[in-house]
What does this fold into?
Amino acid sequence: MKHERVTEELRELAALYALGALTQSEARSYEIHLQEKCPVCEVQVRRFQRVVAGIGLAAEEAPVPDYLRDLLLARIERIDNTRTHAPAPAEAIKSATAQDKSGPARTPASVLSQMPQSRSTFHIYFLIVIMAALGLLAFASWRAVRKENLQLARRLSAAEAEAENLRILLDVQNGRVEELNQIMTMIRNPATRIARLAGQPISPAISGAILWNGDQKLCLTIGYFPLEPEGKIYQLWFLTPTEKIPAGKLKVDPTGRTFTTVDIPPTILSPVEIAVTLEPDNGSAIPTMPIYATARIP
Amino acid sequence: MEQESGSIGQASVNSEIDLLLKRIARGDRVALMNLYDRTSRLLFGIVLKILGDTAAAEETLLEVFTQVWKQSGSYDPGLYTPLEWLAAVAHDQAIVRLHWSKHDKRKPPTVEIPVDSSTTVAPQPQQNARSLVASLSPIQREILNLAYYSGLNCGEIAAQIGKPIGAIKTHARLALTKMESALDFAPKHQNKPIPGDL
It folds into this structure.
């Protein structure tokens, strides 16, 4: 039944239809009425559809990820490769009402489907819908796989970093074990003598020990030292009653720890006193600084 | 949504978009990307607010521009301004997806929607639309929001806000009528008298 004049009830129905606020069955009944080409309702619906479309313009904007642009381009290219771009002529889309829709009025069909309906266009639509659904599925799968890959890559990266840290720790611990083995080997040797390395008043924080083995001609220094000032090193000296023999640089790690083995010169036959001084980077032939630590070999 | 104060600014924006749509209808990809650059922030804002899920909103936005690419020829300047048409396409795609997701048992992920109150796409139409929505009563705004962004029908809205369904319908009609009065329909229908108009 076509209406002859607009009433409040008709306007309300048109407004609710345009807003998508009718139930599915109400919307379907109203669409059947619109298909009867009721000019009054058709105009009301058109007007309210435009009003509703305008509500979206009030929405907050949201930043769009950059990669979506590339995805859109790729999608358009794919569409163009699968079919010739054939836009519908504007003249064919004047009808504001849906021709045969199963959903609410404001489905994409209501905005976009003002094209003539025929079996062939139905097939095209069907194909497009199938392709769009497949495209969506493929895109969703691609996103899911990509997300999973990213998570796996992040986990792999974290695991690699952790493995690297563990390798470093293992190396350090292996080094410690090696050092302990060396200390134990020296201590078990009856020829080894042990002396306390004591810091002097200029550097009371120094503490350590000297393991002296005259048979093997080895002198091991272990202990903790304050870090050397820039351009300086700790140097070991063997002190005999007649001379001060430079015995080499003490290797101090960034924590101040030292584990340094030096050879005892063949000329030294008996235990001596040992001293540590702070010297320039390349060492000194004779001590140039006060003694920082000493040890008397028993 | 055209108001007199902003009609010049709107006409300019809509003319630009109208030209882009015509070029797109001829298969001009550059025009499509120009349109995307010009309008995607606004359309993404609409679909993201409806879907509340970034991944779904991104897919929907792609679908919106795919539809525009395929069917820009179906745009009828007698029915909508170009921006309104784009907003309607975006809204429809998002609502369809929202209804699909309602059948999905999995709970959709929620997203903290980045709030960007700037109006970079079409400042004058956007500001006019916001003013118009702001001029509605709170209950009218709530009803329009629930219908437009949540895809609820009158019964569902009535249940949600605890008002009689009749009141919901009346508020919705009055709200749209108020907004309708601010629209300039003349250019759209100047050669086509409106039969039975009040």
